Predict the structure.
Amino acid sequence: MNHSFFQSVYDVVRLIPCGRVTSYGAIAEYLGSRGSARMVGWAMNASHTEVVNLPAHRVVNRIGMLTGKRHFGAQGIMEQLLNNEGIEIVDDQIVNFEKHFWNPITELRITNDPQTP
DNA sequence: TTGCTGACCGACG
DNA sequence: CCGTCGGCCAGCA
């Protein structure tokens, strides 16, 4: 059960800095499965029973909408967690989403400058 | 085993 | 602009 696609997803989610968010598709693409964004969401669903201390609230869909808020138990928990990190949300939508977006492909790049000839 | 579902995404009309 | 559809793949009845 160790080393699986799910574990890889959890590993990336744990690396999301406080006050930042990313998308399911970005994680899937970082893991090499561009079209498998749904598996990322499925992994998060399984994380309820398999993993703890996982900042799942920092993972939203590609447009910054809190589509997974209903999996946090009570309504509004996901929004509160993000608000606590300085992220503003209006109508289940992150304000200035691009500003808070954290791309694992860009940020988790192996120790190397983004501009290499 | 088959078929459907899903915290998604991009393309098409 | 909007709704719809196909692709992706792991679980479950």
Observations:
- Residues 5-6, 28, 33-39, 42-43, 46 of chain A lie near DNA strand C (CB under 10 Å from a C1').
